[in-house]
Every structure is written in C-alpha cells, then in structure tokens.
Amino acid sequence: MPYYPLLLHCLTVGTILFMVVMLLARFGLFSPDRTGFWILLALTISLLINPTVTLIASDYSVYEHYTRGTVVNETLIYWVLLMSVMGIVAFYSSYLMTRPFNNQFENVPQSHVVLIVVLLLFMAVGWNAILRYRIAEDSQRALVNGKFSGNTTGWQTETHSFVIFPCLLLMAMKRYRIPGLILSLAYIAVRLYDRSDRFSLVAFLMAGFLYHMIKRGRRWPSALHCSLAAALLIFLVFRGHGRTESLNRSDLNLSKVVGTAFVNLGTGPDTSMLPTFYRESDLIEQNGFTYGTTFLQEIFLAPLPRAIFPWKDDVFAFIPGVRYRNEFLNTDVYFAKSTIICAFYGYGGVLGVLIGMAGLGWLMRKLDGLLKSETPVIPLVWAVMVLATIWMGSLGTVEWWYKVIMMFSLPMFTLLVVNRLVAGFVRRRVTPAA
Q1: N or C: at which end does the chain have fewer Cβ atoms within 10 angstroms?
Q2: What are the counts of helices (DSSP H) followed by strands (DSSP E) for the chain?
Q3: Cα 366 off chain centre by
Q4: Tens digit of pLDDT for each residue in 316-337?
Q5: Is residue 172 part of a domain?
Q6: Residue 395's closest CA among 44, 67, 160, 14?
Q7: Domain membership flag for residue 207
Q8: Where do the H-state alpha helices sit in 102-198?
Q9: Tens of pLDDT along 46-72?
Q10: In degrees rounded to 5, what are phi and psi of residue 309?
Q11: d(Cα 318, Cα 96) in Å, to the nearest integer?
Q12: What pTM did the predictor assign?
C-alpha cells in the first residue's frame, strides 16, 4: 500500500471535512438533528479516521484483504481521492443551497382503532420474521451473491423491520407510551440474538433518542442517551456477526470488549470502506456502469417474489455493468461496503458522483424541514427513523439504503392511507344530502 499517496488522501480529505464543519457550524447545522451532520460523521470515519489510524498503526492487513485482485497504485489512490472530494463538495454545495421542506400537513383526524389495528398487523408480521426466520436455527436462509435462494424468501426475513415504526410511534404517543416501551425493550432483547443485522438495532435505539431530543427542543442528546447508544454499538461491534452465546467466556472483561471494539472501528472491516472503494472502482472500470438502472430495479422489481418472477434480475442485464453487478460484484468485493460516493460512481463515473451526491444533498436538506418539534407525531417519527439510518446508509449502496428506508416506512404509509380512507368514509356518512 503506497504510504505517501494515502497520506495525501488523509490530509486532503481532512482539510475538506474541516471546512465542511466550519460551514455547518456557521449556518447552525452542526448538530445531530440535521442530516448533514450524519453524512459528515460517516464520511469522516470511513474516509479520514480509518486510513489515518491505518497509517499510524502501519497495519495494512485489512486493506490488503479487501483489495485482493486489484493493483492499488498511486493513480488509483489519487483517482478515488478526486472522486471523494468531488462527492463531498457536490453534496454540501447542494445541501447548503437548498431550503428545508416547509411542512404544512392537513389535519386528518386519527382513529385510534385504525392505529392499533394497523400497528398490530405489522408487528405480527415483523415478530414472525424475527422469531421464525432470523433467530431460529432451522430457518433455512441461503444467500447466493446477495440473493435469497433458500426456502426462506427476502420478504419473510426482511419484514423484521416492520416492528420498528410501530414501537417508535407508540412510545411517542403519551396514551400508549408504556406498551410501546415494553415492546421496544422486548424487540431489543430478542434482536441481540440476530447475527445477520446489527445496523437496524442501533438505528432503532438512536431513533428513539433523537425523537426525544427533537421533541424537547434540544440540539444535542443527553449524556445518558449517548452512553446507552455507545454501549450497544460497542457490544455489537465486538460481537460481530457471531452468536451472542459465544461471548460467555471467562477471559472477557470490560476493558477487552471496549478495546477490541475501538480497534475494529479504527482499522477493522466495519469502517474499511476506502479499500473497498479502491477495489470496486477498479471493477467498475473493467465491467462498465449501470446508469442507475439497478436503482430502478430495486424500486419496481425487487419487491416481486423471485419464486414467481425468476427473471426480475435480468430485465436490465443487457447492460454489461448490470449483468456483472447482478452476478459477480458482491463476491468480488467480498460483501463489503464502499460508501455512497462509490455507489454513484458505479452509476455513471464522474457524472454519476456529481449528480447523485448533489441530488442526495437536496433530499437530505428537505428532510431537515421535518425534524422540528412542531411537526405532527407520525411524520416526525418517520423523519427521525430515516435520520437514524443515514450514518450507515451513506456507507453502503443506494439500493440497500432505499430498501432499508422502505421496509421501515411501509407501516407508516399504510397507516396514513387507511386512516385517510376511513376519515373520508366517515365524512361521507355524516354529510347530509343536498
């Protein structure tokens, strides 16, 4: 791994991110209740802290592992540095020039019967996914190149997210706060045994704390909330994707758990998006761009069950980049993440990064308009839920982040639609005939 080019990367990215911090602070946007803060945090960890600590420790083993098959030379490092800087500048230029959404919501009466029925239905589906398909040893989940190919489908296992919005909404409503808290604690306790997904559990806890913070008009969370979130994050990072029972060892102590977790966050695979960026950008150059069609595929075709629609991944396969991504990319990058900047690079190179990051900046700034204490409870819970996904969503692919948000959001969309239909039906029934 070339030392001086990587050092130049750290110095350049560090300078750019420091300027971003100054700009956000100047405009009052440097706080956890703003989306730009979480994008900044994610990019700082992955594109600055991780390579800096790697240089200081002179331990390139993780970088060498995730760049196997790619020659990481000065040209590649400088090219990825250029894409990173362009992506950061495009995002924050758009973010700072965009006005937040001015939320004006129609006051539709909320039926408590509709609320309870819809939430219970989604929680039943979600708990079925958790107990039957995620923590059960006989769930027969099989993934081939990121696609579900066993007897368990993607819908059956990914619907565990349906529990998150109902729990957050119940805790946010004074009338149902105690049942919501009990259900939330049960969700966290059971999900600790889920080896395949650590992100959503941390995001769930963060969303609860962020809602409490915003609703009270605060810009920063309390020390207690920060400590609880940090404790859960340290535990999950230390555990990795292994079984929770494997931690019952006599040689474990608090200092060892915390130390291992911080080492992993500094130089481990959980934050090593930069070497994957090197590897993936090289593969993209060899096999071609997708031109954003994989995102369209995720929106319109991914919800279809593969057992009935086996051709759903092949609609855009006439594009070489799409065919390669569908068949080989996940295994060629060793199932690692490479930041949202690299994801947009795969859409269309330099133009993909500029357009994609600028568009993302516009969307994130619009979302800031919902993150206010006066926002009605349902849209505020949803906005906070999306806010809690940014720190990890911006380190993965656009398709994965979209899927996470949609699975989190389906209960909310259903509740709004059903409630509006019921309210319209009631109005028609009570309106006298002319």
Answers
A1: C
A2: 20, 2
A3: 18
A4: 999 999 999 988 888 888 888 8
A5: yes
A6: 44
A7: yes
A8: 112-128, 154-158, 164-172, 177-191
A9: 999 999 999 998 889 889 999 999 999
A10: -120, 70
A11: 39
A12: 0.90
